[in-house]
Amino acid sequence: MNDAYTPALNDFALTAAETGVITSMLATAKPWDCKKSDPLYTAVQAIKKRIEEFHLKRHNDQCCYCRRYLGGAGHFMIDREHVLPKSKPAYLPLSFTIWNLGVSCKRCNMQYKKERVDFVVDDTNVAARLLSTNYLLIHPNFDKYQDHIGHSLNQEDGITVQKFTTRAGSDKAEYTYTFFDLRGLEIDGFDDAQGAMENEEILGEGALEARALAEQFGQ
Questions:
Q1: Which helix (H) or strand (E) element contains residue 188?
Q2: What's the pTM?
Q3: CA spacing 20 to 30 A to 122: which of 73, 148, 156, 210?
Q4: How many Å apart are CA 197 and CA 191, to the nearest integer?
């Protein structure tokens, strides 16, 4: 298993009490979905919070798929992501497995990834689950994001520029870029602003004055 980030996956240690809670939950039909009425609810929520904080630290408070900043976002924007979806019976035992978990934004998880497994190369090989090569997309734990996709974001005075650049020769980059429609997140705000400025220059002073008067009198 390749670990692309720090703190290392092996550094995430469960206490004996936490291990007991997870063992109990894995014996249920939906291990991750502990109800408030369940005596283990508080303990499960605490474990989930630890997992979330751990993976946020690994990805510098960013979505593991689109690099959206999630610092201070709260549960309305953040999803604790299961790479291999817990809804599939074969992956249910991995509900609390740290290498199968990550943190993503709601857009990437709920709108695009959902319960899909078509990004898995070999769905039957259990040992291959720990290999980066078994995933067509950039794995949140096994692959360094910037090795495949460069991401730049600049915001200044209401103008935003965001760009994703796929690395040459990276199939994972192309797949991830398409899978999560990263193109749909790209913004070229400075060009838009520059275009507006150029248009005003073309209009000339007289036209600009006429437009200002029209706006003043609601026309």
A1: strand 187-188
A2: 0.84
A3: 148
A4: 10
Rounded Cα–Cα distance for residues 4 and 147 (Å): 10
Question: How many whole angstroms from its chain centre is CA 72?
Answer: 15
What is the maximal distance between C-alpha atoms in the chain?
Answer: 77
C-alpha of 82 from chain center:
11
List average pLDDT for each run of 10 residues in the chain, which is 219 residues long. 97 98 98 97 98 98 98 91 97 98 98 98 96 99 99 94 98 99 89 45 44 43
What are phi and psi for residue 3, nearest 5 degrees?
A: -110, 115
Please tell me the distance from the alpha carbon of residue 88 to that of residue 111, in angstroms, as a whole number: 18
As a whole number of angstroms, the distance between CA 109 and CA 111 comes to 6
CB neighbours of 175 closer than 8 A, spacing ≥ 6? 119, 136, 137
| Inter-residue contact 40 to 88 (CB < 8 Å) | no
First to last CA, the chain: 66
Would you kindly state where each structural domain of the chain is located, as residue ranges? Answer: 9-148+164-185
Is the dihedral angle over the CA atoms 69, 71, 75, 78 positive or is it negative? positive
Q: How far apart are CA 157 and CA 159, in angstroms?
A: 6
At 122, give phi and psi (nearest 5°): -125, 105
The residues that bridge with 69 in the sheet, in sequence order, are: 62
